[in-house]
Amino acid sequence: METALHFGQTLVFEADPAIAGLSAVRHDTHGALLVEDGHIAAVGPAETLLSAHPDTPRVNHGARLILPGFVDTHAHAAQTAIIASWAARLRDWLETHTFPEETRFGDPVYAAEIAERYLDLCLSFGTTTAASYCTAHPASVDALMTAAEARGLRWIAGRVMMDRNAPDALCRAAEAQYDLCAPLIDRWQGRARLGCAITPRFAPTCSAPLLEVAGALARAHPDALIQTHLSEQPEEIAWVAELFPEARDYLDVYDRAGLLGPRTVLGHAIHLTDREWHGIAETGARIAHCPTSNTFLGSGLFDLARAQAAGIATGLATDVGGGSSFSMLRTMAAAFEIAQLRGHRPHPAELLWLATGGGAQVLGLGDKIGRLAPGFEADFVVLDLASTPAIATRSARAEDIWDAIFPTIMMGDDRAVAAVYAAGRRV
């Protein structure tokens, strides 16, 4: 493993700034990060660390900003090749683009090809961890996990579980789902830096017996993440009410199956009732906010301020390929724009937290990644805050670090990503 002192501007988050305020964030114009054996050993002013470790190899990033690697809490790796495909609403997207594309993953060679491309794209935008949906094919999980392990990444992936309202090629009987998923969890959960998620796609493609199987998997594998979708579009909610007339609401469908708790990541969660907001907070479930997808598919405007006020752990997500960008910078920008439309103006510090430490907490990894802190894994990204002429022109007038960062959040792309490190190794 590489041992090095990395110099540049640093931002250290001690807590969620939406709760603790900006006093929870420390900025060093001349900061340093000491990396030893894949972990962060120390972080602080450059002079202090240089004095304490004068013989350590140095990497000078100049005036660039060192941040934790970005964390994407909800993405569909299998939709890499169909991102930005023209479609109408959610069901049209699934039937026209998603299901035909996912059927192709019956070919392990194709699954491996897309896994490699997806991870390379994520890294080019500074994403070092994601929770990814694969397809119904076990080989799709094996392909993504193999590629992530080869890159030394901390990654989570799950085999999508479906038994209705989808093509036969992607559906499996409820009673077969346990034996298809359990070996994948046994093989990948906790191996290297990997995790395997229990992944019922969403209630419309899952019968009650299938959801019960997912609940049984969750009980048998208490360390595995649970990921699914919730209340993305009004038509979807009405569909769920028809399919599960015994349930009080959409959230109750998952609750009845034993799928709600601190390990549960609910994608979207836009159109929630008061009871559902309370239920998410009470069970400790988390939310993956997918702003570019929510606008691209016309789904609606997530209420970030309410989630924060309710104390619900929330992270940002690209939701590729319904989401229209692999970039967490673009995702932060979209989250800001959606919040503005709801009368809320999140501070740049809040946006960065949602894409780093907040996302890590959502995935149950808040003690391992998402912050520049001693003992944490050395996943970090180096950002150029003047990566384009437009950004450079605006940032030249910055009055403080937040004023310098915000143009990159709003206008930045892969050109802003100067370097990416996973477990201390440049990737």
List keywords for this structure.
4-stranded parallel β-sheet, 39% helix, 22% strand, 17 helices, alpha/beta, 7-stranded mixed β-sheet, 427 residues
What does this structure look like?
By secondary structure, this protein is of the alpha/beta class. It is 39% helix and 22% strand. It has 17 helices and 17 strands. β16 and β17 form a beta hairpin. α4 crosses α5, α13 crosses α14 and α16 runs antiparallel to α17. The protein is globular and about 65 Å long.
List the helices and strands and how they pair.
Layout: E1 4-13, H1 17-20, E2 25-36, E3 39-45, H2 46-52, E4 58-68, E5 70-76, H3 90-103, H4 108-124, E6 127-133, H5 138-150, E7 155-158, E8 160-161, H6 174-188, E9 194-196, E10 199-200, H7 208-220, E11 226-230, H8 234-243, H9 250-256, E12 264-268, H10 274-283, E13 286-289, H11 291-296, H12 304-309, E14 314-316, H13 328-341, H14 348-355, H15 357-362, E15 380-383, H16 389-395, H17 401-411, E16 417-422, E17 425-426
Parallel strand pairs: 1-4, 5-6, 6-7, 7-9, 8-10, 11-12, 12-13, 13-14
Antiparallel strand pairs: 1-2, 2-3, 4-15, 15-16, 16-17
Helix pairs in contact: 4-5, 5-6, 6-7, 13-14, 13-17, 16-17
